[in-house]
Structure formats: C-alpha cells, structure tokens
Write the structure tokens for this entry.
Amino acid sequence: MELYNSIIDKINGYLGSTTPKRYAYDPHKTWEDVGGNQLVMMKESAYELGGDNKPAVNYACVTSGDYADKDEILVYGKDLNQISGSTPFARIAIVKVKDLEGEGQEDTEPLFRAIQDIDFVKYHVYPKGYMIRSSSDSFREQVRVSKEAVRKGITFEQVGNSYIAQYKKNPDIVAVKMIFVTADDADYAGMRADAKKTRDITLTLSKILEGMSTDCHTCSLREICDEVEGLKELHFGKEKKEFKG
Ligand code: SF4
C-alpha cells in the first residue's frame, strides 16, 4: 500500500522549526469520550483551533512502508493547555497497515475498503469539550475547545491517544503516528495541498473500483494518475484480472 508514500515523504518539510514533543501511545491516557456529537457553545469556548479563518488542515495517509513503526503522538507548537486564542492547526495521521496487496490479495477492493474504514475513524472520536467540525471539501478540521476542558488540563497527548485507540480497533492497522501542529512557522498551505491530493487518490481508487474504462487519454483522472506512482498499475492490474475472470 504505497500510493500515499510520496505525500508522507513531504510531511517533515511542513512542520516548522520547533522540536516536537513525543508521547508513546498509552490507552490509559485517553481523554474522556462523550460517544457522539456534542455542542460547545461560543460562551463556553476557550478558543478555536483554526478559528478566525486560520488554517485548519486534516489528512490521513495509509501505508505499509516504514513510516510509522510504533504508535506515537507528536506535537509541533503549543499544546492545548497552553493556547489562549485562535491558532492555526493541522492534524495528520500516518497509518501503517498490513500489506493488503500482498500474496493472494490482487483484488483492489479490500484495499479500498481498508482505506475507507481508516477514514471513518475521524468521525468516531468525540473528546469531551473538543468539538470537531470537519469539511471534506475544503479539508478543514476546525476544533472548538471548551473552557472546562482547558481547566481540566486537556492535551494533545490525551486526544491523540483517543484517536489511536479508535484506530487500533481495526485489525489491519499495525501502527499509527498522530501528528498535531499549531506552530506559527509550519507550512499549512503545503499540508492543505497534500490533503487535497490524498483525497484525490482515494477518489481515483473509488472510480477504478467502479469499473471505469482504461483509456488514459480520455480519462479525467489522468493528472493524478500521472503524478502518483502505482495508480495506473492498480487499474490495469484489476482489468487484467477481470478479463481473465
Ligand atoms: S489508469 Fe488511466 S484510465 Fe485508469 S484512472 Fe488512471 S488515468 Fe484513468
């Protein structure tokens, strides 16, 4: 599963000059989860990550390469208990999966289903006092943090543990690196561009699964297929398999 590797390769270049804080995954240090959508009213809000039209980027890259060898949380910039006003924000997940294209797995479908399941996680984490507003069109993930959560000492370590705990319910997932960024000198525009590319790759996989024609000259997805190594091979491999029956 190497379609997203060229995107993962660029992440370190976006994170700014601060030295990250690193935390090993600890399932006993998750933040309380409310189990469903919650409303943090403006008057209860301490601040917003991505508020006042500041950047707020989110994407997840799936790989079977050596980009995430253990479960960990990295924080670049101020932590949740140090922020006092609207701040730029990014959350990136690097998710290592078993090699779903390995022996006996020529079919594209299990791979795509795994990617969808992984994407699903972001809609199933509800840390108390951490109201997430996602928009898949603009790749934004804006978060309103409540005064109560700040008073109780909420941190990215705890929120990151909550995300990783949710990911680890999926037996195909080997390890997760969860990166939170609030640093002023991070390249949020670069991250946003790669969030879009990640979405485009997943959409292309979905189209390939629908059984579209294999004429690259007339295909509207040619730009992304020319850029991302492995997509064309995946499409033609699938066609060959179907042709053989
Ligand atoms: S391999 Fe060619 S036909 Fe298939 S999705 Fe990519 S550009 Fe389109």
The longest strand covers residues 89-97. The chain is about 30% helix and 20% strand. Residues 204, 208, 214-216, 219, 221-222, 225, 231-232, 235 surround iron/sulfur cluster (CB under 6 Å). The chain has one domain: 5-212.
